[in-house]
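Recap slide: 10113_t:CDS:1, sequence and predicted structure.
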Amino acid sequence: MKFFFENTLFAFLILYFRFIKPIKANIEKEVFTSNAVKISETLFKEISEWGEQGGLLTLTPPYTIKRYDRIVPFKHVDELSQDKTGEKEKWYILDDLEEGKTYETRVSYAATSPTTFMLEIMGFEEAANIFEKRRSLEIPQSNSQPIMTTTKKLLRVRAIYDGVSIIPGRESRPIIYNIVLETLTYGVPRVAFKLVLSLALILGIGYYICVPMFYSSLQKLIKIAEKDKIDRDLNRDLNRDKTRIE
């Protein structure tokens, strides 16, 4: 049984490093722990309305995925500081976050589109500073604004083309990607954690139930075979003795 368990575990590790781990080459992620912050209700309302008007997608735990989104990459790093309009970036709202819990946002994209993605998770005040500098959002300032507490965050996604192509304009073509927000359990993504539990359950059932049952059945077959052999030998000896007497 020990031999069976060790070989099953060895086979799983081979599959993991051969097929699962290489997929991560096209995944970039950002892990964060949610915290509650106090902001003015006016700021919260203005950015929330801006998000609704811009059609921002809201990602919520325990698992949300947006497939086949598109982003136009920057040609080189220097363009990041020169970007004054934010046309080459995508924003997402991270909502229903629980204080103290750990989450992961990640993007996955095809290997045929060599790109470096940058994921920035920020609060409303940090986002407001960016918008005000671009004059895309004006938030009235007042010392007497009502204060509220929220765990809601904003996610900014930007990309830089990281390949070399002889095709003209290839570096300016939109990159197709999937984006995910997922709750982490003991540092493991929810989907992967379920997979690990399922594999552990299967291995446990195999090791503690199936293998003993198979071993028990095999032992019974061996005993039956041994008994049949003894009976045949006994019958052969009896027949031999009868022949001698005759």
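Helices lie at 2-23, 41-53, 78-82, 124-133, 190-245.
The first strand starts at residue 27 and ends at 33.
(End of recap.)
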